[in-house]
Amino acid sequence: MKKNVLSSKQTAILKFIKQFIESKPYPPSIRDIKNGCGLSSTSVVDYNLKILEEKNYLKRDTSVSRGIYLEAQKHVSSLIETSDPDTTINQIELDDLEFENRGDSRTITIPFLGYIAAGEPLSIPPSDKWNSNEFDSVEIPAFLQKGKNDLFALKVKGDSMIDALVTEGDIIIMEQTTQAQPGDMVAAWLNDNEEVTLKYFQIKNDKVILRPANPTMSPIEIPANKVSIQGKIVGLIRSLS
Amino acid sequence: MKKNVLSSKQTAILKFIKQFIESKPYPPSIRDIKNGCGLSSTSVVDYNLKILEEKNYLKRDTSVSRGIYLEAQKHVSSLIETSDPDTTINQIELDDLEFENRGDSRTITIPFLGYIAAGEPLSIPPSDKWNSNEFDSVEIPAFLQKGKNDLFALKVKGDSMIDALVTEGDIIIMEQTTQAQPGDMVAAWLNDNEEVTLKYFQIKNDKVILRPANPTMSPIEIPANKVSIQGKIVGLIRSLS
DNA sequence: CTAGAATTAGAACATTTGTACTGAAAAGAG
DNA sequence: CTCTTTTCAGTACAAATGTTCTAATTCTAG
């Protein structure tokens, strides 16, 4: 039986990683963590990193040096069940920050945070940094907002999401959230396939059903702990020509 | 004497680094850059990185793998924009520069003229009446316009255009025209089937080829006199949730 | 206490990654 | 053209970094 609580060493590692990433433009190496946390061996770091990865506190790109990063999302299963307070250490604090409505109420400006592609995990910076001018921004019609907060935009790379009626170059508008209601279209990370997919979200018993927008294609059914919700899709803008 | 302009290779490297950092949670390695920019040797990357560092386009932490980061994002993009226009940058699209319109981003208002459905012909009022109060209007991001005139919006009814990656409720932005260039996505009226369809337009001999946006579906080939072009699709807005 | 599990320590090893060196090719300058 | 400077290609090597292994140690349920 696996413990559901993190050891003090593991929380220390998580905190160190978070702090490191915030203060430097690259992630820490194993030995950075070893020294930063006063650990005795790289193998201890590796050992604990594997546990943290298993519990979805962070992800690692294998065969990429410094390929370590924090998941900005919570586990679906921990949301459906009662969420464990110990599992909130690396959660990103979400200020309820509103975007400025410059005069015209029919338009809002949201940050453009990067790209979404099949094989690559989404790495969404903490929302309290969205207003810094590191990021580009996109103007979108206000009717897409519908009272949502923490909206951001991503550009789609590749045709892997074509069964969601989404194609190369589309700009998708997402709401950052780890919770989804049945019927929402979500961006979901599939642990096994290691990919992001856009599907309609439903729950059946303790399983998650992901249904493509294209009704001619079949839904997939996955155990809740194999999926993590990255956000809700609230809209899409496509520029042809 | 050192040139004050960046070579095409150097702008490509800069652009790649920017894109890489935006899409991944760690900076690129020398070899990532080499492959991403189609360069032949790590030494070429190193050579150019040194120049870029010298000119203050980026910084490097020595003795740290992937210890590379851009000095100032704004600086970079503005210089890429003004660098040699005849230098083509391979492998990397510069089109995400279109998002760097912060400060002076705009929207435009276009008339909402009604619905588009498979079985019904489009009845578009003459454009000099669009500004009258009979019509609703929609605010759209200015970057969808791209110099087009006579834009209007229609709402999609039914799922008949799903092979164009368009579904019920989508708002499509069209330019009124009866002419189309090969490669345009058009709204075409098919005389025989008596329906409107959205397809990519091409010409082969005296026949018209209409190609679905979904690459897994087959194009159709029709004599030119059986088709009439109703307009070009310049964009699409989808509101989920 | 005791057996099994979890954790740690240390080291060796494998891979990734940065850097240096050579000579060749290309580009300019006169 | 010749000479110089810049840029490139290929390779080799060294440093940084990730991974694995074994045995010791600590922890924990019973």
Explain what you see:
The structure is a homodimer of 241-residue chains. Chain A has 241 residues and is of the alpha+beta class. Chain A has two domains: 8-70, Arc Repressor Mutant, subunit A; 107-237, Umud Fragment, subunit A, CATH 2.10.109.10. In chain A, 17% of the residues lie in helices and 30% in strands. The first copy, chain A, contains four helices and eleven strands. In chain A, strands 4-3-5-6-11-7-8-9-10 form a nine-stranded mixed sheet, with no helix packed on it. In chain A, a hairpin with a 4-residue loop joins strand 7 (185-190) and strand 8. The longest helix of chain A has 16 residues, at 8-23. The first copy, chain A, is globular, with a radius of gyration of 19 Å. The N and C termini of chain A lie far apart (57 Å). Residues 72-105 of chain A have low confidence and may be disordered. At the A-B interface, strand 3, strand 4 and strand 11 of A face helix 1, strand 4 and strand 11 of B. Strand 11 of chain A pairs antiparallel with strand 11 of chain B, so a sheet runs across the interface. Chain A binds a DNA duplex (30 and 30 nucleotides) through helix 3.
